[in-house]
Amino acid sequence: MLVTEESNRRNQWHASIFAALALIIIILLALKWPGAILALPLAWGVYHLFRRRTLRRMEVVAEPFPEGWEDILQRNVAFYQALDEAGRERFRNLVKIFIDEVPVTGIRTDVDDLTHVLVAASATIPIFGFEDWEYSGLGEILIYPSAFNEDYQTDGTVSRNTLGMIGVNHLSGVMILSKPDLISGFQNHKDKRNVGIHEFAHLVDKADGSVDGLPNTVAGDVASPWIGWVAEELKRDPRAREEIDDYAYTNEAEYFAVLSEYFFEAPDQLQRRHPEVYAMMRKMYHQDTRSFLSAVKPRVRKVGRNSPCPCGNGKKYKHCCALRTRRGMKKRA
């Protein structure tokens, strides 16, 4: 998403080529139909069309990072805290571009700065190690006031609860996240649970067109061992791996997404318990999270029953999310 000098030059070159082609076509048409010469400004329009996103991103990066957003990252995102200043600058720029380009819409709930920045942080963390990445096909993110079911209902009477999902069929290009669970995912950065990272890991997986637990970022020397490892793991009784969330054993895609949470939330534990898995995920994400995240001290924010609910709806915790969300008991898509 970030514009480098090289990518900017490449974009200028491509824009110039297509503008020149448009100009040549207009001139050729004008030789037969003189009135076609009036279409000459279209060549400039073609150039601008191809340059528009790159120029917009350069403008966005040049804008100052809001102090409120910086405070949210400092207080909530351990990954950001662990970066050096150069890394933080890159993280901030990725956040700015994501917020500028991807609409985040609240469904019966407000989307405040906390929600918006944590969504952007969730999107940035999995792709931070990639030099050039685009979440192609992601058109909108919907924020729900609580967990929901397969019919997207949140009335508390549903029997199946989901904290997040990437849309299919008529909702293709849409991601849905439960607001309180998005927030709670950043309150304890060592618990291996972060629904935002989980769902964006699915989009990393989906970059090759299918959500199958084998993203196209997997190098050739990793693909075969990873496929073999996951195949053997899915044969296990989930209770045999107490450190891995049971939901990982749903299928290959969920195993990859759950292990991604593990990789970004507790890399020291993953490397200690399963060094071969950590080594494979390090190559998949082009990040060595253990090398810098392990130095961040665990931070658990306790929410009292009478404390304001972290979802931000103004109710007390005991009257809101305490009644509706029990993370370990809910389905995670």
Description:
- The chain is mainly alpha-helical.
- The chain has 14 helices and four strands.
- Helix 3 crosses helix 6 (113-127).
- The protein is globular, with a radius of gyration of 23 Å.
Strand order of the largest sheet: 1-2-4-3
Strand/helix succession: HHHHHEHEEEHHHHHHHH
Number of strands: 4
Please count the helical segments.
14
Radius of gyration: 23 Å
Tell me, rounded to a whole number, the average pLDDT: 86
Low-confidence stretches: 323-332
What percent of residues are in strands?
Answer: under 5%
| First-to-last CA distance | 26 Å
- Main pleated-sheet profile: 4 strands, mixed
Structural class: mainly alpha
Helix percent reads 40-55%
Shape: globular
Give the SSE layout.
Blueprint: H1 5-32, H2 41-62, H3 67-76, H4 78-82, H5 85-101, E1 104-106, H6 113-127, E2 140-144, E3 164-166, E4 174-178, H7 179-184, H8 195-206, H9 220-233, H10 252-265, H11 267-273, H12 275-285, H13 290-293, H14 321-324
Parallel strand pairs: 1-2, 2-4
Antiparallel strand pairs: 3-4
